[in-house]
Structures are given as C-alpha cells and as structure tokens.
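Data deposition worksheet. Section B asks for the primary sequence of the deposited chain exactly as it was used as input, without tags or linkers unless they were present during the calculation. Section C holds the resulting structure in token form. Section D is free text for depositor observations; keep each observation to a single sentence. Incomplete worksheets are returned to the depositor.
Section A, Depositor: J.P.
Section B:
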Amino acid sequence: MWALKMKKNIAIIMGGYSSEYEISLKSGNVVYNALDKHKYNAYRIHIFKDKWVFVNAENEEFPIDKNDFSVLVNGTKITFDCVFNAIHGSPGEDGYMQAYLKLLNMPQTSCNMYQAALTFNKRDLLSTLKPYGIKTAESYYLNLGDAIDENAIVAKVGLPCFVKANKAGSSFGISKVYVKEDLKVAIENSFKEDNEIIIEQFLDGVEVSVGVISYKGETKVLPITEIISENDFFDYAAKYEGKSQEITPARISENYANKVKKEAQKIYEILSMTGFSRSEFIFKDDEPYLLEMNTVPGLTKESILPQQAAEADITMQDLFENAIEEALKNNN
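Section C:
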C-alpha cells in the first residue's frame, strides 16, 4: 500500500484546439507508453473545445472538473501531482494551459505562460530577440482585413518568399511563393489558420533544428538535426509523411555546429525557458538565422527532439521522466 501512495499521479494532456490535434494525440500516447508504471500512475487527458476528459484503457471517458483539474472515476476523486504537456498548438503551446495550471499551483512540464505565448507568436518572438543580436529573415506582417499590397511585399522580402500563419505549427497555413501573382492565394490560405500572418524572405542554405532542454538541473543543447526536404520546403508531408531526411547529427562543420548551438542556448536563456524547446535555423553567409521556436515539439518516435535525445544517449523514458522531475522540482 505504501508503494502505491508514493507513486505520482501524472496527467498527460493531449489533443488541443488546433489543426495539430492528431499529432498531439500521437505524442501524448508515446509519453503514456514510455513512462515507468512502477514510478508513475499515468492518465491520458484529452483536451478539446467541447470536452476535457480522462480516457482509460477501455477508452471510457470521465469528465475533468476544471475547478481543480481533478477527475471522478467510479466514485473516487483523482488529483494530479504533475501535468505532462503534449498539446501542440492552442491551448497547450500558446500559454493558456500554463496560465490555468499556474493558478491551480500545479506543476507542468513545459515553459511558463509568458514564454509560451511569446514563442507561439512568431512575429513577437523575432521582434523580442532582434535587440539581442539574433539574426532573422526579412519579414512583412499582415493582419486580417489589411490592404494587400503585393508590390510592397515583394519590395520588402523579395521572391521567392514564405507566407506563414503567425500562430500555427506543423507547417499548417504555410506556402512558398515564387511569383507575385500567387501571393493573394497564399495569404488566403494562411488566414484560414490565423488572423495574423508573417511573410518572410526565402533563405537559401542548410536548415537545422536544435533541441534545448532542462536536463538534471542544467540547460542541455542536444545534437543538431539537418533537415533535407524532398518537397519544396519542410512542410507537413516532409515532417510527418516521411518526405524528408532528418540527419542527426547534422553534416555541418564544427564551426557551424558551435555557432548554432551557442545561438540556441542563448535564446533559451534570454527567454528564461524551462522544459523542451526546438529551434529551427537556416545558415546564410555562414551565420545561423532563426526561423521559429517550438516549446511543445513533437514527441513521437519519428519526431526530431526524441531523435536528438537518442543521439545524446537519452532514452524516451528518461527524456519524459526528467521533464516531470524538473517540473516537480521547479514548483517547490
């Protein structure tokens, strides 16, 4: 009985309100299966707009009480010691869940509310980091309802360029545009995902992804992944349907590796990050340019961060359990 009492109850939140919910469910289930059941009682919690529910092994659903994030299962109230955040996109990656859980004083594995909101907003993140010398692509911002001046856009960012939803992940709402005449269609596509968009200069160079995590009380930069897409860019199919090569460790010079690791760690520390992060860079003129930062990166076996952890001899189980232990420690 004593051993049972000592086990921590871990709520693994997954799903979410965005187009990324299916990927999030996969990530959450990977975490659920990886955790040591002798150490933790793991609970799969599906978070959707119309329901927050605990889903048991028989796929029965029990509603979450949002007053204290507890659940009543067959007459027994279950509370949680820690929340493992596996929600990509809203509300897990944009600060809403972090703020809610902070109000409940409940430990959770991702960064804090402000950092989540900032990094989820590509425009605000890049604007915040520029004064610190972080290099970024030339960009042009549009909000829904703004007049679209194709000539002004091309004059600022050139062609080809990328049109992106400002607050979306997994390459939803992103297009590569080669000719001015295609800008309007690309902009409409991005506005389906978000009411703010960012149009960026195309950077032609080696693309890499750098994971940085809080590991055993220290900031740890993981081995770098080189991304080579079979498609025109690292889009949804490239990320999730095997249409890319993700080479870890990246085939880049020691000079390049040192530069990009230094930048990734600098960004993590400037923002006072905790938990997982994965930053994307492209090299231009021998310097790494930041594209974006993810604070709830994919956690499936095919995902980049677990690949990087494996190269650093960190197992999936260790990666996830360390995140829980760091969250518990940071909340004390």
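Section D:
The chain has three domains: 2-109, 117-135+204-330, 139-201.
Residues 2-109 form a domain with the Rossmann fold fold (CATH 3.40.50.20).
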